[in-house]
Amino acid sequence: MEKLNRWDVISPDGLSIESEVTYSTPEEALTAMNTWVKMYEAQGYYSSLVYGRIPYEDITLYCALIKI
User: Fold this and answer.
1) Which of 36, 44, 55, 64 meets the CB 3.0–4.6 Å disulfide criterion with 10?
2) What is the DSSP string of 12-42?
3) 32 vs 18: CA distance, rounded Å
4) Which candidate, 7, 20, 9, 17, places its Cα nearest to that of 67?
5) pLDDT value at position 4?
6) pTM of the model
7) Exposure of 9 by Cβ count < 10 A (0-12 exposed, 13-18 middle, 19+ buried)?
């Protein structure tokens, strides 16, 4: 039996943006990432333990889309 590919989005701190949730397609994962990033719009930045303050417009550059 062929294994189905799943996708995950990893935050700048190396954690999944949603625990126990993966996505069927890269497009679905990117939509979820954009929704997640929107939570930081009013604040204007994402506070990362690794990178410090990441400006809102740069958050997606620090995220990773991975196939699992």
Assistant:
1) 64
2) TTSSBSSTT--BSSHHHHHHHHHHHHHTTTT
3) 9
4) 7
5) 82
6) 0.89
7) buried
